[in-house]
Amino acid sequence: MDRSKTPEHIRIDERNHVEKPLLDQLAGLQWDILDLDKIQTPQQTFRDNFTEVVMRPMLREQLKIINPWLEDAQGRPFCTWGTTIGWRYRRELKRVSVFRESSS
Fold first, then answer.
1. Which one of 24, 66, 70, 71 is separated from 5 by 20 to 30 angstroms, measured CA to CA?
2. Between the CA of residue 22 and those of 11, 12, 16, what are the distances in Å?
3. pTM of the full predicted structure?
């Protein structure tokens, strides 16, 4: 089936039915939206690679805005700690998921 022949208004895909409505809603709340083309580079999204979920430069900038007393040296550890899942947490998460599967 050729999806390109399906009219845009009835095409059921993640972009049109999940991402775009969310971006429109956030724009309505005065959020700054970064809406890029399908083909993009990590640098366009303020990341080193696509495995990173958080835009760390933006996070550091916003932390300074809401905490003007915060020094760079104080913000850096939070950006690292707050955006990574430690091995202990991953181990606990795995234990919980195994427990859920076995109790089903």
1. 24
2. 17, 15, 10
3. 0.54
